[in-house]
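Chapter review. Work through the record for Transmembrane protein 100 before attempting the end-of-chapter questions.
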Amino acid sequence: MTELREDAVKTPAALEATSNVEKVGDGPKDHAAAAAVAMTGVALVSEVQLTAATGGTELSCYRCMVPFGVVVLIAGVVVTAVAYSFNTHGSTISVLGLVLLSLGLLLLGASAACWKVRRERQKERRRESQAALVAARGSVFA
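Structure tokens for Transmembrane protein 100:
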């Protein structure tokens, strides 16, 4: 199992600073002060915090792209079918349908390519691991 580091669970200092905003009065000068206090930068999230928050799924974007690709592809088919059923070739709706159709196919293609690359990497890791085990086994019996 992956061990969580203690700093991954802590709230970043920038977020703590925004939560400690003091209450201000109701005067017009106080509203400007409140606006100035509320304007802070967005805290950067470390890779450890991202892994802790997502459970390690940040490297599996191909799994997320499949449902979005299917939905966009279906929307593209529907919009294109409606546009061409009314004989509106070249209109805005037909162009939108073709763009959605292309985007859906692109998302599904990218997802398939990412899946294939990941599968090849896993095969390579297994081969390396197996070679290391065979080499270790040979040195034990020699």
